[in-house]
Amino acid sequence: MAFKVKSTNNNDYRLKPVYGFVDATGCSPLEITRSAGPPKEDKLVIQFKEAAPDAADAAALFKEGAPLGELTLPLKAIEQNDALRTESTMGDAPPADAPPPPPPEGAPPAEGAAPPADAGAAPAGPPTLMADPPEANMPAAGGVSAHTLRNPSAVRLAFKVKSTNNNDYRLKPVYGFVDATGCSPLEITRSAGPPKEDKLVIQFKEAAPDAADAAALFKEGAPLGELTLPLKAM
């Protein structure tokens, strides 16, 4: 899917990205930054339409006919003097028993037979964790990099993020969970400092569906695996 994000208040809000893509059964981060201003309720309207696998220009697609549908994301600013920043992730899978969304008005009926029962199932193999984008590039003067941790496996995972440079980097969160076939945001903030290359090591291990304390799980034996996310401050 390609998406386009529209706001009812372009004076106080900045969006990143405004246009983008979400792969089938995938997800994509959306960063919303609000500047200081009076308390006010606004909304985002996120339009979407189908995109070919090799499509590279989401903005161009929205110049070619009406969108397939849209969703609304309410915005509520309740503190006058604080700049508010939030991060959302688009593409989270609905519950397995959720009813399918109604087709858009005028859409043709679906063609062909129903997909097999195991269509969209998590791939077989050992649990793993992936980061998107797979590395962070930021100015040495400081900045924020938003990432998404993806879990393509069939089990829930807990994660722990370790850094080779705790002086210049702050992570949010340090511990957390990623549901089976789900995703979770990771925010990396760098303070001003000399240009330097560092890395994050993100350890992961299986977690029970009712587990609530990710930090406690990493006190109970070795992690199942880990991935490395390079950090480059230029």
From TrEMBL:
Residues 1-80, 118-234 form the MSP domain. Residues 108-123 have a biased composition (Low complexity). It comes from the Eukaryota. Pfam families: Motile_Sperm. Residues 96-107 have a biased composition (Pro residues). Keywords: Cytoplasm, Cytoskeleton. Gene3D superfamilies: Immunoglobulins (2.60.40.10). Residues 87-145 are annotated as: Disordered. PROSITE patterns: MSP. PANTHER family: MAJOR SPERM PROTEIN, MSP DOMAIN-CONTAINING PROTEIN-RELATED. Central component in molecular interactions underlying sperm crawling. Forms an extensive filament system that extends from sperm villipoda, along the leading edge of the pseudopod. This is Major sperm protein. It comes from Toxocara canis (Canine roundworm).
